Amino acid sequence: MHERTYTFADPNAIARTVLTQPGMTWLLAMRDGHIPGPNIGATLDFGNITITDGVVSFTSHGRAWMANPMGTLHGGVPMTLLDSAMTCAIFTKLPAGKMPTTTSLTTYFTRPAFVDDGEITATGSVVHLGSTFATTEGKVTDARGKLVAHATATFAIIDSSAIAASLGLS
Fold it and tell me: What structural domains and CATH numbers belong to the chain?
């Protein structure tokens, strides 16, 4: 048996920071290490983060603990990477007080990724941003640049004041 141990931040402390700033501001602060990153990023070892207006990409590495019974990367890993990258892409365009929440995510797998293949890269791009809904597209590529999965997603754009109030920010 193997064991994995890692540390992660208090999610409420992260929320207290991000809910009071425009998305691009706190994303850049996370990337630059000024505030803790998301706990899913600690879980899946996000790295090499690139953030531009409407596009976010980052890397992860397949690990043995991410394998399905066939020894390939479990499909939930690229799906989680896609959801995270596409959500962050929307955040680059949102003011403080607004946040996206996934309403649909359709993922297409094109090839298996193996846990020892090295770095995989997820990229999310905003296709449309309205006042109440956004659409995105994303892709995950392996270390050779081969497409592993691609996705489209729809997000509701919601007011984050109720979350902020529950954390004592209002």
Answer: 11-166 (3.10.129.10)
